[in-house]
Design goal:
Shape: globular
Strand content: 15-25%
CATH class of the largest domain: Mainly Beta
CATH topology of the largest domain: Jelly Rolls
Number of strands: 10
Distance between the termini: 20 Å
Mean pLDDT: 92
Order of helices and strands: HEEEEEEEEEHHEHHHHHHHHHH
Low-confidence stretches: none
Radius of gyration: 18 Å
């Protein structure tokens, strides 16, 4: 999703224009949350990032589009996109005067099972038109956009989930390991995780590949970067070494390498782009 929205989710910065709606109890093992964000009128182009939770991002109307730029490649997506995996140097430009987006944030294993996808799908399709997925699983995007209120949209998604006979349980050990990584905010290594969480590396690697679609190292790296990004975006003075060290990087060069990989820009270039 746009990283500026993900930043608000991580910080819990919600208000009347940007807010979260909790799923009902019967949906809470599948959906982490429903989110409504008002688009920044000053900026039509946003960096896309994922912290391990797959998302569906719905525009306001069925005919609205975004242009996705990945490096030198660009393509257009209509109405709604899905994104997950390790997203690098991908930007979305809104092509219409969109005021608001509606985002559904899923638990990874539940998302892949719900939509009949292999967990490795997003390794090669980190951001994709949802119509490519929906046509195979009887989710009518056109009918979704006949819903006008947020309540109707949530009810539509909820009805689809309830009517999908999908097992969404994950290993309790994997869930605890993920919670442990989130608690560390990516400050650690795979070895730290295997030792402190008491799991075998081969089991961890297989479980992540099957249920998350990422290697443990990649997942940890996403957590580390998003928290470093949040600190950078909220800093009045840019001290890359301080930000790097406080977020588990060995030094500022390692942070710079990650930053350039995920954004295509240096931190200073990116901050200037955002202004």
């Amino acid at each position: 999703m746009p990283i500026n929205y993900l930043r608000k989710i991580q910080l819990g910065e919600f208000n009347e224009e940007n807010y979260r709606i909790s799923p009902t109890k019967e949906l809470e093992s599948v959906i982490e949350g429903f989110y409504i964000f008002s688009k920044d009128p000053k900026n039509d182009t946003h960096l896309i990032f994922n912290d391990g939770f797959p998302v569906l991002v719905f525009l306001q109307n069925y005919e609205e589009t975004v242009t996705v730029t990945r490096g030198k490649d660009a393509f257009e997506i209509k109405a709604v996109w899905a994104s997950a995996g390790s997203i690098k140097n991908v930007y979305v430009k809104y092509n219409n005067n969109i005021d608001q987006v509606f985002i559904v944030r899923f638990y990874p294993n539940a998302f892949y099972r719900l939509f009949g996808l292999d967990a490795q799908y997003f390794r090669y399709h980190t951001i994709t038109p949802f119509e490519h997925i929906a046509k195979n699983i009887y989710f009518s995007i056109a009918e979704f956009f006949e819903c006008h209120s947020i309540e109707e949209k949530i009810a539509f998604v909820g009805s689809y989930v309830r009517n999908s006979p999908t097992e969404t349980d994950t290993s309790e050990t994997l869930d605890k390991t993920l919670d442990y990584i989130h608690k560390l905010k990516g400050k650690g290594t795979v070895r730290n995780v295997t030792n402190d969480a008491g799991v075998n590396y081969k089991w961890l690697e297989r479980s992540f590949a099957k249920n998350i679609g990422l290697l443990p190292k990649e997942y940890i790296q996403l957590q580390r970067f998003i928290h470093a990004y949040i600190e950078l975006a909220g800093s009045k003075e840019v001290d890359l070494m301080r930000i790097a060290i406080s977020n588990g990087y060995y030094d500022s060069n390692h942070f710079l390498k990650d930053f350039k990989g995920y954004t295509g820009k240096t931190p200073l270039e990116y901050l200037k782009f955002q202004l």
